[in-house]
Amino acid sequence: MHRKSWQRIEEYMLSCMSDSAHDRQHVYRVLNNAIEIAKGEENVNMDVLMVAALLHDVGRADERDDPKADHAITGSDRAYRLLTETSDLSFTDDFAEHVRQCIRTHRFRRNDPPATIEARILFDADKLDVCGAIGIARTLMYSGAHDRPIYTTEADGTIRDGKDDTADSFCREYRFKLEGMYDRFLTKRGAELARDRQDAAVDFYNALLGEVRIGEGRAAFEQLLIET
User: Fold this and answer.
1) For position 205, which CATH number holds?
2) Alpha carbon 56 to chain centroid, angstroms
3) Per-residue pLDDT tens for 79-123?
4) Domain ends where: 87, 120, 153?
């Protein structure tokens, strides 16, 4: 791919990034993950893969502005228009459509799985950034930006671990999504990289829960209160 074309696409990506948990650094990590995963696969169209990775989150602002929007769908359409309607880019419709389908299927969906090797690599590259220490950090950042607590409690102050929690919290997100992430990879190399990161996430969650549960409940301070 010509450097000028890449720079033009990168410029557009940078103009779309406004979410601290899905920022330009996330995009570059996903891009690097995709390149690493692709080394273990055959017949990968690297231009399609790299462009799809660079543009995979350009629809995030749409989702932020409209909770009913799906950034994978709006982003895939944005990418297609960019590649086909920008005068200084010369990509074919087939190329742009391939990129669009990669972006469209990079989220978890049972009814619309990634169909090509490039789409499967992008799926894994994006999920890898939700694993390990970086996954924990990004989830906490996202939770804070959306006013979600680290954990929730029962009426008596007992701290929930997130497993059966219906209220949003970091612990719920960990048990509901992050904990089971490691069995969902579609490529061999993606799964290997994810397993290398798993212990860091598990150790953090267990350490956090252990710390906050010291003296949990209301008894510790209620016994110091004086009835009037």
Assistant:
1) 1.20.58.1910
2) 11
3) 999 999 998 888 999 999 999 999 999 987 667 889 999 999 999
4) 120
Q: Is residue 226 part of a domain?
A: no
Q: How far apart are CA 205 and CA 105, in angstroms?
A: 29
Helices (H), 93-131: 93-104, 117-128
Residue 134 and residue 111 share a domain: no
Angle between the 46-55 and 93-104 helix axes, to the nearest 10 degrees?
50
Q: What are phi and psi of 156, to 5 degrees?
A: -90, 5
Maximum Cα–Cα distance across the chain: 79
Q: Does residue 221 form part of some domain?
A: no
223 domain-assigned: no
Where are any strands of DSSP class E within the chain?
none
Cα–Cα distance, 83 to 90 (Å, whole number) = 7
Range of the domain at 87: 1-120
Whether 152 and 165 have beta carbons less than 8 Å apart is answered as yes
Instruction: Specify the residue for token string 């497993």.
Output: 163
Q: Which two tokens stand for residue 33?
A: 């993950």
Contact 123, 2 (CB under 8 A): no
125 vs 88: CA distance, rounded Å = 29
The rounded radius of gyration (Å) of the Cα atoms in the chain is 21
Tokens of 56: 């995979």
pTM (predicted TM-score): 0.90
Residues 157 and 192 occupy one common structural domain:
yes
